[in-house]
Specification:
With 282 residues, this protein is α+β, with helices and mostly antiparallel strands. 56% of the residues lie in helices and 16% in strands. It has two domains: 96 residues, no CATH class; 128 residues, no CATH class. It has a three-stranded antiparallel β-sheet, with helices on one face. Strands 4-5 form a two-stranded antiparallel sheet. A hairpin with a 7-residue loop joins strand 1 and strand 2.
C-alpha cells in the first residue's frame, strides 16, 4: 500500500509531537522505513529518540514511517539507521515544501496588507513629488551660471565651500620666516573654509527616486493585486518584489530628508555665497 505524502507542519514543543494520535516510540529501524519528514525542530531540552536506542537529542525531525505512523528522531540517528542518502533526499523534499509554504504564507500576508501598501505608496509619492518640486523651483530661480555651479557640485558631491582671504603683511612675513619658499605673490591669499553644503543629492536624485517608486513600489503592488484577483496562492517573483518595498521606501524618505537639508536657510545662504565668490550676478 502506497503512503500518501502529507502536508508539512510546524512543531513548537516536544508536547506537540507526543500528543499526536499517530505518534509511536520504541521503533525498530530494521522493521520500518523512513518515508517523509513532516517537521524539523530544535528545542532547549533533550528527549530520548523515538527509536529503540532512545539516544537523547534536542535537534531532529518528526518523521512519517510505515503504517501511517510518526515518530521523532535525531538527525544523527536518522542518518545512522536509515542512511545518509535517504535522509538527504527526504530533507531536500522537506526543504522545498517548507520553502513553498513560507512563500505562500508571505504572499497571503502581503495580500492582507494591500490597503496599507497602497496608502504607503500614495503618501510616499506625494512627499517625494513635493520635495522634488520644491528643489526644482529653487534651482530654476537661481541665475543660470550659479545653477550650473550647484549641479556640478551635486554630480561630484563637492560639498566644501571655500573663499579666499588676503593675508596681512605680518602673516606673510611669518610664513617666509618659517621657510615657505613659494613666490611672494602666491602668499598673498589663502583659502578659507566657510561652510559645507547639505542635501546636494536632492538636486539630481529626484527623477531616479520617482522612477524607483513607480517601478519598485507601485508596479509590485499592482502585480500583487492582479495575482490575488486571479486566484493565485503564491508567486515567488511578486513576493520578492513586495519584500523589497521597505528598502525603496527608506531611500525615498532619505531623499526627502536631503531635500529639506538642501532647502534650509543656511544652505541657501551658502549657495548665494558661492554666487558672490564667483561674481555671478543675481
Amino acid at each position: 500500500m502506497q503512503e500518501i505524502e502529507r502536508q508539512i507542519i510546524r512543531v513548537d514543543s516536544w508536547q506537540d509531537i507526543f500528543d499526536r494520535a499517530d505518534h509511536r516510540r520504541d521503533i525498530d529501524p530494521k522493521k520500518t522505513k523512513l518515508l517523509q519528514i513532516l517537521a524539523g525542530y530544535e528545542f532547549k531540552d533533550d528527549q530520548p529518540c523515538g527509536l529503540i536506542g532512545k539516544h537523547p537529542h534536542r535537534r531532529g525531525f518528526l518523521v512519517v514511517i510505515e503504517g501511517e505512523l510518526t515518530t521523532h528522531i535525531g538527525r544523527d540517528c536518522a542518518a545512522t539507521h536509515f542512511g545518509s542518502d535517504v535522509v538527504k533526499g527526504l530533507l531536500g523534499s522537506f526543504t522545498a515544501a517548507e520553502d513553498r509554504r513560507n512563500q505562500a504564507e508571505r504572499f497571503q500576508k502581503q495580500v492582507a496588507r494591500l490597503p496599507e501598501l497602497n496608502a504607503e505608496y500614495l503618501a510616499l509619492s506625494m512627499v517625494v513629488h513635493q520635495a522634488s518640486n520644491a528643489v526644482d523651483i529653487f534651482m530654476r530661480k537661481l541665475p543660470s551660471a550659479l545653477c550650473n555651479k550647484v549641479l556640478v557640485r551635486a554630480q561630484h558631491q563637492d560639498v566644501a565651500v571655500e573663499d579666499s582671504r588676503m593675508r596681512t603683511a605680518a602673516e606673510i612675513s611669518d610664513l617666509v620666516a618659517r621657510g615657505d619658499r613659494r613666490p611672494r605673490e602666491q602668499l598673498i591669499y589663502e583659502s578659507v573654509h566657510v561652510g559645507t553644503l547639505q542635501g546636494l543629492s536632492a538636486v539630481i536624485d529626484g527623477p531616479k527616486v520617482k522612477r524607483s517608486l513607480h517601478e519598485k513600489v507601485l508596479m509590485p503592488i499592482k502585480a500583487l493585486e492582479r495575482a490575488h484577483k486571479q486566484g493565485a496562492t503564491v508567486v515567488r517573483s511578486i513576493v520578492q518584489d513586495v519584500d523589497g518595498i521597505p528598502s525603496v521606501a527608506r531611500k525615498a524618505r532619505a531623499y526627502c530628508a536631503e531635500g529639506s537639508k538642501f532647502l534650509a536657510r543656511e544652505n541657501k545662504d551658502l549657495i548665494q555665497l558661492i554666487g558672490q565668490i564667483h561674481r555671478i550676478a543675481a
